Amino acid sequence: MDNIARCMRLYLITDDAGRMPADLAERVERGIAGGATAVQFREKNGGPSMCARAFERIARICENADVPLFLNADLAGRFEPNGKFAGYHYSDRTLPLHPDSLPTISGYSAHAPADAVSAFAHGAHFCTLSPIFPTPSKIGILDAIGVAAIAETRQRLPHKTIVALGGVNHENAADCMAAGADGLGVIRAVMAAADPEAAAKKLRAIIENYANS
Hints:
By secondary structure, the chain is an alpha/beta fold.
């Protein structure tokens, strides 16, 4: 397993639920304490001031914990990010056309095996594949693609880093790992948990069970 795959074992994505910066940062910090290995800042509905304050707090937490932080590319230019971050997480709306223009580490949101193949051809370093399971944020937008999509993507991209995302929780996490995911991307399963640290710890234990087998 390469360094990128290790970083992406448990990818914690902020939930864009209108949380105040202190609450958002605290939940991220507790998720990291429980085993999150990377974080994506994805507050698309937040105003520039709120995003700037929340990002600064989260960047400091991630730096202190030596956990890479990614900025959702939809937010580029909406606020001035004050703090270190490893790179951007792109979509089909934001992925640059030339691989040389990508930062050191770049993620991409793929919604089918073919999307992932294309993203890696454009220079992405890892992909989230979603939605694996039904999830409220994608109702009426994207249908769940199931764990079979993970297996197909793994077959087509045997040496690339693939992160299962969308409706992933401790009840179905093992199915994602068994299908070939390098890691799990989670939003509600940790951010909305009564105890984000315990939720992350439970997911990380499932991941490690497969990563070390």
